[in-house]
Write a structure and sequence with these properties.
EcsC; single chain; mainly alpha; ABC transporter-associated protein EcsC
Length: about 260
């Protein structure tokens, strides 16, 4: 009788594990399809409008924004103040996800509080919100990298972090290109510096993605709640994208002998 119960428990446990694995695989497959889906009619129309706006903006303005964002991002990615502790090497997926959920929740709250203050402070504080929010996002990505067992001090990992950022805040066409570059990341040979990175596309895609939402943050009265909600959702979206991107790498790893 005891042996039968033990065998039944093992069988039930194995069935539950297999169901969880199947669900996780399906979830990842759906995300892959979303990342590579071609732009729809609405997305193409919105992109066309944004391109017209970009053509109106003087080239020297584009160049100035690109230079500023490049400098800020380089400082973030090459600095040592984004260390998050030792990577979590020996851990189950559930343990990794538990740490990641805590990190995402923490940075959502921080970004929402900062966005609310910036939204209540008019243009000057709203402008200051841009680099602050970006630094919050990059710090979150470093924490997620460590939770999935990756060393954030390595340049290849920092490039992957940049690509996650692009993946979360790009239009469909650019997103598909970025995803293609990320797929099979650990089997690739990576650059030894950042000289080949397309900073112009990086900053323009990001700015285009958040422009309308952040403009509402400048409005009187509603600026504070809008700033809080927008920052919360942007961090939440980035966190989800990072989790799926690192799960993709985890799935591609060969099983332990």
């Amino acid at each position: 009788m005891i042996r039968r119960r033990t065998l039944r428990r093992r069988r039930d446990s194995l069935r539950s594990f297999n169901l969880a694995q199947t669900a996780a695989t399906a979830d990842l497959a759906a995300w892959r399809a979303e990342m590579t889906r071609p732009p729809g009619a609405l997305g193409m129309a919105a992109r066309a409008v944004q391109l017209k706006v970009n053509r109106i903006i003087p080239e020297k303005v584009h160049a100035a924004i690109t230079t500023a964002m490049q400098g800020m991002t380089r400082a973030i990615l090459t600095g040592s103040d984004f260390a998050t502790g030792a990577p979590l090497v020996q851990a189950t997926l559930d343990e990794r996800l538990e740490r990641v959920r805590a990190a995402i929740d923490n940075w959502k709250k921080t970004a929402a509080a900062e966005g609310g203050i910036a939204g209540a402070g008019g243009f000057v504080l709203a402008a200051a919100d841009f680099p602050l929010l970006m630094s919050f996002k990059i710090k979150l990505l470093f924490e997620i990298a460590a939770a999935f067992g990756h060393e954030g001090s390595e340049l290849s990992e920092r490039l992957y972090i940049l690509h996650i950022f692009e993946l979360a805040f790009s239009d469909a066409a650019h997103r598909a290109k970025v995803f293609e570059a990320m797929d099979g990341w650990d089997a690739q040979t990576h650059p030894t510096d950042l000289s080949g990175f397309d900073w112009r596309a990086f900053q323009q895609q990001y700015r285009d993605h958040i422009d309308l939402a952040k403009l509402a943050q400048l409005l009187p009265v509603v600026g504070a709640p809008v700033g809080a909600i927008v920052n919360w959702r942007l961090v939440e979206k980035l966190g989800h994208t990072a989790v799926m991107a690192y799960r993709m790498r985890l799935e591609a790893q060969p099983p332990l002998a």
